[in-house]
């Protein structure tokens, strides 16, 4: 079966005055139709360069990229009719034109039959809940509305590969949630089919909520490529538990942290006979509370706060690990 | 796909353009040139000849500015990635949008020179309207091929506006649009044979005056335009490839 996206040993270097910069090195991964692949990386990791190479804006220096089986170098035009790229931000639209006119124009450029244009524009605009403002000039839209219009335009030609580069950048939490909901519905097949979605974002919640799989790009190389659940499991703990205790210093068990699945991170006196301690726990279950109580034989637990370990923590750990 | 892309791009340009955008090139400039020429030459300034000269000045100004500015505007709006990553391609969109802007500006120019000539009491008389119209269309196509040639330069250079400024007047002079080419030095006259607008102007003058057009002028108009088209096609292909290879166009 042909993969929706196949990236094989892709390298991309740039010549600068101070020498050659390797933005991508031997990048290899693939993604299938119906899959949401999150691409994570710090600034300068090579995410945007990779998106540009896949979307035919840049040529790879080495390696190959195939979209739905077609090579981006030798079959550029066919690749362009199979993918859409949605860049984040307010730019990239004609402000004086209505949302509908923008969708129709970019649909025409995507090769959509003129008899289908109006119907398809109405469909995708409704999909992103912009139907009530579709005939208003885009310059009157909020940032979030513009971003949803970008997404609608990206869907005009029903692409097999949809690339979303920082789709929620600069959006307020409500708009970001709304956009995530739309992308989630799209991934579930709201457009009548399930495209392969390649998602890059600085907001790890986007990835955590939407991605099936996560690839981490560091220094131009893919360092991890795992299902999201597996990546979270590799963090080694399910949650960080903060406990407030009235009483003496905690017992610090030596060597049994691994066995009990509860590891003390730190403990600080909080004044008025109180202590605050943080634990990493491998599993959050009733036995964990018993174990925590065992750690404070002379204290009374006054409060427990449980924060599940998320992708942000995992990503920070991995990035710091790579930086060391 | 190409024709639909051209039409859609022209329509978007006309819808999205400010109502004042064609005023300078399409109204002010030809009106000023017409008035100055008629004041300077008095009764010696033939209505049709002056109008055609001013019309061609307006057309060339529109070609240079619109082809340069459309690219600049698309870059500033951050629209280039959305265009380049679609199968229709950047060249079709640039040509369609520039053509839309040029047609609007040209229509305003024709209207302006007609009105100014009529107000000055020297209405424009075209002796052979059919031949004149065919020649005018050929002139427009030729000007667009020259615009395409400039497109590849504008794509490579960030300073499209400066280039447009630098190109405007040399073509006015070499095309015989400001002064007859016969008054130019020999080297400049030789150079002017490469400018298609010079031959277009001769053909338009002849059609307006009812003189028979010179086949040699048609041959040179077609030959120069064909050369522009071939060089533009090769140039754009090379430039777009280079942009993808070197990442030199600020797309995102």
UniProtKB/TrEMBL annotation, chain A:
Lineage: Bacteria, Bacillati, Actinomycetota, Actinomycetes, Streptosporangiales
Membrane topology: Peripheral membrane protein
Position of the signal peptide: none
Location of the ABC transporter domain: 5-244
GO cellular component terms, A-Z: plasma membrane
Biological process terms in GO annotation: response to antibiotic
Alphabetical list of SMART domains matching this protein: AAA (SM00382)
Main location: membrane
Family membership noted in the UniProt record: Belongs to the ABC transporter superfamily.
MF-aspect GO terms: ATP binding; ATP hydrolysis activity
Keywords: Antibiotic resistance, ATP-binding, Nucleotide-binding, Transport
Protein name: ABC transporter domain-containing protein
InterPro entries (alphabetical): AAA+_ATPase (IPR003593), ABC_transporter-like_ATP-bd (IPR003439), ABC_transporter_ATP-binding (IPR050763), P-loop_NTPase (IPR027417)
Pfam families according to UniProt: ABC_tran
Locations listed in the record: Cell membrane
PROSITE patterns referenced in this protein's UniProt entry, alphabetically: ABC_TRANSPORTER_2
UniProtKB/TrEMBL annotation, chain B:
Places the protein is found: Membrane
GO cellular-component term (any): membrane
Residue intervals passing through the bilayer: 21-42, 48-69, 90-120, 132-157, 169-188, 218-240
Domain spans labelled ABC-2 type transporter transmembrane: 20-204
GO MF annotation terms: ABC-type transporter activity
PANTHER family per record: DOXORUBICIN RESISTANCE ABC TRANSPORTER PERMEASE PROTEIN DRRC-RELATED (PTHR43027)
Protein known as: ABC-2 type transporter transmembrane domain-containing protein
């Amino acid at each position: 079966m042909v993969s929706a996206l196949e990236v094989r040993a892709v390298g991309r270097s740039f010549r600068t005055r101070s020498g050659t910069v390797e933005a991508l090195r031997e990048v290899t991964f693939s993604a299938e139709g119906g899959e949401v692949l999150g691409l994570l990386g710090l600034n300068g990791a090579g995410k945007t360069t990779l998106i540009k190479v896949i979307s035919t804006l840049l040529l790879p220096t080495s390696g190959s990229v195939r979209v739905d089986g077609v090579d981006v170098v030798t079959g550029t035009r066919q690749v362009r009719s199979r993918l859409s790229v949605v860049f984040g931000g307010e730019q990239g639209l004609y402000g004086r034109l209505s949302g509908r006119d923008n969708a129709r124009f970019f649909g025409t450029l995507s090769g959509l039959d003129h008899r289908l244009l109006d119907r398809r524009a109405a469909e995708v605009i409704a999909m992103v809940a912009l139907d009530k403002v579709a005939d208003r000039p885009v310059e009157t839209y909020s940032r979030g509305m513009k971003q949803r219009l970008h997404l609608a335009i990206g869907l005009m030609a029903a692409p097999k590969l949809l690339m979303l580069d920082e789709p929620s950048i600069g959006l307020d939490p409500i708009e970001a949630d709304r956009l995530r909901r739309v992308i989630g519905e799209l991934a579930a097949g709201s457009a009548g089919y399930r495209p392969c979605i390649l998602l890059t974002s600085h907001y790890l919640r986007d990835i955590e909520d939407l991605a099936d799989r996560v690839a981490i790009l560091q220094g131009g190389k893919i360092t991890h490529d795992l299902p999201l659940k597996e990546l979270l499991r590799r963090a080694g703990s399910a949650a960080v538990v903060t406990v407030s205790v009235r009483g003496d210093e905690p017992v610090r068990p030596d060597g049994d942290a691994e066995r009990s699945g509860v590891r003390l991170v730190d403990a600080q006196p909080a004044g008025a006979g109180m202590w605050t301690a943080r634990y990493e726990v491998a599993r959050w279950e009733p036995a964990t509370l018993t174990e925590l109580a065992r750690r404070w034989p002379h204290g009374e637990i006054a409060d427990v706060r449980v924060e599940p370990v998320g992708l942000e923590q995992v990503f920070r750990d991995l990035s710091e690990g790579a930086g060391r | 796909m190409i024709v639909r892309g051209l039409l859609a791009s022209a329509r978007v340009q006309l819808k999205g353009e400010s109502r004042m955008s064609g005023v300078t090139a399409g109204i002010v400039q030809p009106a000023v040139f017409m008035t100055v020429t008629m004041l300077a030459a008095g009764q010696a300034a033939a209505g049709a000849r002056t109008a055609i000269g001013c019309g061609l000045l307006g057309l060339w100004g529109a070609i240079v500015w619109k082809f340069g500015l459309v690219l600049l505007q698309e870059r500033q709006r951050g629209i280039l990635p959305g265009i380049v990553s679609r199968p229709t391609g950047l060249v079709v969109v640039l040509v369609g949008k520039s053509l839309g802007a040029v047609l609007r500006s040209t229509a305003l120019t024709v209207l302006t020179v007609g009105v100014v000539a009529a107000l000055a009491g020297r209405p424009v008389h075209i002796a052979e309207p059919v031949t004149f119209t065919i020649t005018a269309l050929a002139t427009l196509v030729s000007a667009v091929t020259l615009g395409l040639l400039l497109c590849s330069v504008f794509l490579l250079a960030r300073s499209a506006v400066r280039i447009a400024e630098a190109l405007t007047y040399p073509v006015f002079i070499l095309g015989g649009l400001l002064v007859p080419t016969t008054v130019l030095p020999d080297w400049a006259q030789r150079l002017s044979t490469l400018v298609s607008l010079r031959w277009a102007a001769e053909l338009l003058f002849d059609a307006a005056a009812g003189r028979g057009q010179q086949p040699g002028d048609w041959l040179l108009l077609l030959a120069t335009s064909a050369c522009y088209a071939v060089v533009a096609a090769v140039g754009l292909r090379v430039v777009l490839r280079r942009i993808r290879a070197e990442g030199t166009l600020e797309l995102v």
